Hints:
The chain contains 14 helices and eight strands. By secondary structure, the protein is α+β, with helices and mostly antiparallel strands. A hairpin with a 2-residue loop joins β4 and β5 (85-89). α6 runs antiparallel to α7 (175-197) and α9 (229-236) packs across α10 (240-251).
Amino acid sequence: MERMxxxxxxxxxxxxxLIDCLMRKIPIVNLQNLGLDNQxxxxxxxxxxxxxxxxxxxxxxxxKHNFFFCVLFTKGRGTHKIxxxxxxxxxxxxxxxxxxxxxxxxxxxxxxxxxxxxSRNFYESPYLSDKxxxxxxxxxxxNPPFLRLSRPDIENLxxxxxxxxxxxxxxxxxxxxxxxxLVNLIYVDLSRHYISxxxxxxxxxxxxxxxxxxxxxxxxxxxxxxxxxxxxxxxIFISTKxxxxxxxxxxxxxxxxxxxxxxxxxxxxxxxxxxxxxTAISLSLGYQDYAYFSRVxxxxxxxxxxxxxxxxxx
Length: 314
């Protein structure tokens, strides 16, 4: 009997993987495709208007990136949708984008500004201790990827962005080192504005940051198959109680909620492709019982999958 149950479970998991492979996915933009005349495959920077002109076909519809990017708007208005959250685009809007997120923007007036993109490895050298998650906007997926600057703040930051573009376009000695220093300077200045703009943001110890980063990394790898905090606590070599304490103290959610929120986010992304049925989505995310998946979805979002699908299809 146990063997039959085991075989059935394995077959269902395999079916979920097969359905996942067949489902229509959101297209992914690679960093290597941004700088056509650039020999670097882990960094790119440009004026925003130039970037949009060269990559309009890939940025005007929903897509993902396999890299991080930061964009500062100095002119223009519109909306920017990042993983189903909508933000206003206006002068002073800054967006921080993590690898894997889905987004697109729509403009009411022509935008201007600056944008730089990089891989994780570009910033996180194996010989240095600096990590991207030291910056509050990259610390966790629960922290908003958005900041609004005043006109004086924009004017103070613009020279650093212009210096970054100038350095990238030249061919001087220690070019890479200076670019990394300029990126770090911009991130530090933006972090100060980010922290001062959100009084509820908590200061997290380096030890907790490492655990949160590892936890979210393991979630990204296993969320389709594993929904239990105990599984992830074992992967990080800490107790489930301690993991929950760290997550609740740092992010004001439980470990279980962080796992399920990642599942719900992927479900929403898959629903954007109308060819994907709700049953197939449920299976691909590890739920063999669609009714149970529907209850989980509604408990976290307030609406059923069917209602959510109807809303985004309007």
